[in-house]
Amino acid sequence: MKKGKVYLIGAGPGDPGLITLKGIQCLKKADVIIYDHLVSGEILAHAETTVRMIYAGKEGGRHTLTQEQINRCLVEEAEKGLTVARLKGGDPFIFGRGGEEVEILAHRGIPFEIVPGVTSAIAVPAYAGIPLTHRTHSSTVAFITGHEDPTKGESRIDWQSLAGIETLVFLMGVKNLPGITANLIAAGKPPETPAALIRWGTTAEQETLTAPLAGLAERAKAKGFKPPAILVVGSVVSLQPLLNWFEVKPLFGKGIVITRPEAQADEFLDLLHAEGARTYLFPTIRISPPDNFHDLDLLPAPRRIKEGPAGSQGAPDRRHRTHDGEGSRKIRYLRRSGSVNLHLRRGRGGVPESGLKGEKRADPPGGKGAGCATQGSIRRRGQGRLRDGLPDGFLGKEKSGTRRLDKRGAGRCDHLHKPLHGGKFHQNHGA
User: Fold this and answer.
1) Which of 31, 36, 91, 189 is catalytic?
2) Which of 82, 204, 375, 428 has its CA 20 to 30 A from that of 7?
3) Catalytic pick from 5, 31, 172, 249?
4) Rounded CA gap, 40 and 183, in Å?
5) Catalytic-labelled residue, pool 3, 22, 58, 254
6) How do the domains of the chain map onto residue ranges?
7) Is 189 a catalytic site residue?
8) How far apart, in whole angstroms, are the C-alpha atoms of residue 233 and residue 189?
9) Is 1 labeled as catalytic in the residue annotation?
10) In what order do the strands lie in the sheet with 5-10?
11) Which residues partner with 352 through β-bridges?
């Protein structure tokens, strides 16, 4: 049997938007995904629905699978002829044991590729407003593990050399924080050197704690600071209050539940994420075609819709029917959260030939291909509902006087900050 292939993919530091395009492409063609604890569900959602998921994460020292079991799993799945995606947080070759995993594959003659990821060692300080290098503050930077292999017997870290480097970044160092700070001070690092701990970096749960090097361990203990976190030591940390851009977003850390159908939630989720919100998708509505057209055929004769310009809300009636061609029917439902166009193709006996297949592109009314949208498609016309808290420039008006999100304002982030900062952000049903 022909052997499969393994893609060792860096998933990035936590923000699902920081995975690379190549990483997403590899996920989409995988038969099996073996993923770690810090990989978000939004990243896994890029995979096909038929893919088999294997969780291999560890949390707080508790291993779901040992490293030896992970290695064996990679080999066994690839030898079945399957395409395997090994998805690891950050970059797989930066303290991620990726080298050990592909070493096993190489010895077994299994093809593999490395897809680098955005390492948390760089991205997390950036999200906290800490530049690792700066012409005034730092010309040297080093990455150090805060959790060495316990089987080595003694540490290989040269503390004397590290004390002379201007910016130090420790990964996985929360548990050993008292020892790290003590060793640096003993090696000559000034006790007043600025230092920062950044927890759950690049996510809506991000938390930054700053203190002088000598007092950081005590402050972290008092705050109950727990992994995962990154430690940054150096004068660049003094820039953090000035350059902090992520944790000051108007909706940072706020949790918002989205109840609208999953296929219609993407753009609304993007708007909320852009302002720092933590979102939870909980659809309470499902739109699907009828089992047959019997009830629709009992309705009064269809009236033709007077189409307006592209993007308009159309006529105010609650329901319209028009014939788009022989055997075809277009139904427009106007709902409180916007209108949805269902394009259904009748088969023999009045039964739809196919169900809804997710969102597909439909030409605007009057444009090229108007009236012949893909069978089973949904076309969005509203972007969600909010009662208060958004600026007028970001909202459109419907004929009923209610307010709706206007996608034309999607890029106007500068209009959002002051109106949203400190204000109420209400969710309406179906948003």
Assistant:
1) 36
2) 204
3) 172
4) 35
5) 58
6) 5-118, 122-243, 294-380
7) no
8) 10
9) no
10) 52-55, 32-35, 83-88, 5-10, 112-115
11) 346
Please, are residues 4 and 79 in contact by the beta-carbon 8 Å criterion?
yes
What is the chain's mean pLDDT, rounded? 77
Residue 212 reports pLDDT greater than 90: yes
Q: Looking at 213-327, which runs of residues are DSSP E strands?
A: 229-233, 255-258, 278-281, 319-325
Band (pLDDT 50/70/90 cuts) for residue 22 is very high
Q: What is the pLDDT of residues 184-209, one digit of tens each?
A: 999 999 999 999 999 999 999 999 99
CA–CA dist 85, 7 (Å, integer): 5
Measured CA to CA, the distance from residue 114 to residue 356 in angstroms comes to 37
SS3 state at 72: helix
Give me the residues paired with residue 198 across strands: 208, 230
**What is the C-alpha separation between 230 and 128, in angstroms, rounded?**
11
Span 122-243: which CATH code? 3.30.950.10
What average pLDDT does range 104-110 have in this prediction? 96
Q: Does residue 310 have a pLDDT over 80?
A: no
Given a cut of 80, whether residue 180 has pLDDT beyond it is yes
Structure-token pair, residue 222: 């008092």
Question: Rounded distance, CA 288 to CA 24, Å?
Answer: 29
Tokens, residue 173: 């160092």
DSSP for 160-171, written as a single string: HHHTT-SEEEEE
Q: State whether residue 134 is helix, strand or coil.
A: strand
Contact 87, 39 (CB under 8 A): yes
The reported pTM is 0.69
CA–CA dist 64, 41 (Å, integer): 18
CB 244 within 8 A of CB 220: no
Distance from C-alpha of 56 to C-alpha of 205, rounded to nearest angstrom: 23
CATH code of domain 5-118: 3.40.1010.10
Top-ranked range on mean pLDDT: pick from 55-59, 236-240, 252-256, 364-368: 236-240
Integer Cα distance of 70 and 54 in angstroms: 10
The average pLDDT across 331-359 equals 45
**Residue entry with tokens 């990455």:** 143
Q: Is 223 a catalytic residue?
A: no
- Tokens describing residue 299: 């309705």
